[in-house]
């Protein structure tokens, strides 16, 4: 089916006279509540879908204007900051990729081991200045910036020492930092039968002090990775 990324300024009711079909819409592995439609063999997507891909849409009079809000980062990157594992996300400063997630057992003195997960990350500095996560987007509360989510929506506890080590490390322009974050289930959780997390979030503050000298190129620089798909 040929895709035409044209955004008609019409409602579904306005095109009811033509043969239309609704399609479920998935952007980089994430399902949207909005639908795409097929009208006379041509497929149309809503403006909200383009926004999730880093495209701003404005309407003035009878003119629809589209403008990309994200920087292009190569063949393996997208302007949208949500997608799958092994996909690189670029927000104008940081290139972030989740390379793998593996089950682990965390020792707990005086009790059985605790089940957990190790999330392996790759973060590159895409700016022209030496930066740390602390100085550009992660602020003074690094423990709240990395979130591992279970299928029921509950989150797991991150090892604070892992976060602090990565948070304070300086990364030169073009440099890469690889690190592992460990997350644990609550004490007393059986080792067998724990659900595999399905989402990993990197929550980044879009506001950076002017003296740092860098800016994000997307409205929301945070990263949302679906762990049940791989690019």
How would you describe this structure to a colleague?
Residues 6-16 and 69-79 have low confidence and may be disordered. The strands form five sheets. This protein has a six-stranded mixed beta sheet with strand order 6-8-9-10-15-13. It has a four-stranded mixed beta sheet with strand order 7-17-16-12, with no helix packed on it. Strands 1-2-3 form a three-stranded antiparallel beta sheet. The protein folds into two domains: 13-68, no CATH class; 77-230, Immunoglobulin-like, CATH 2.60.40. It is flat, with a radius of gyration of 21 Å. The chain contains three helices and 17 strands. A hairpin with a 3-residue loop joins strand 8 (88-90) and strand 9. With 231 residues, the protein is mainly beta. It has helices at 47-52, 134-138, 160-167, and strands at residues 20-27, 30-39, 42-44, 55-60, 63-68, 77-78, 82-85, 88-90, 94-108, 111-125, 131-132, 146-149, 157-158, 170-171, 176-184, 199-202, 223-230. Residues 1-18 form the signal peptide. This is DUF4352 domain-containing protein. Keywords: Signal.
Quickly count the helices.
3
CATH level-1 class of the largest domain? Mainly Beta
Q: List segments where confidence is low: pLDDT < 50 over at least 5 consecutive residues.
A: 6-16, 69-79
What's the structural domain tally?
2
> Which shape, going by the Cα principal axes?
flat
Q: How many runs of DSSP E, i.e. beta strands?
A: 17
- SSE pattern: EEEHEEEEEEEEHEEHEEEE
Q: Rg, please?
A: 21 Å
Strand order of the main beta sheet, please? Answer: 6-8-9-10-15-13
Specify the biggest β-sheet. 6 strands, mixed
Strand content: 35-45%
Helix content: under 10%
**pLDDT averaged residue by residue:** 82
What is the CATH T-level topology of the largest domain?
Immunoglobulin-like
Structural class: mainly beta
CATH architecture tag of the largest domain: Sandwich
Q: N-to-C terminal Cα separation, in Å?
A: 21 Å
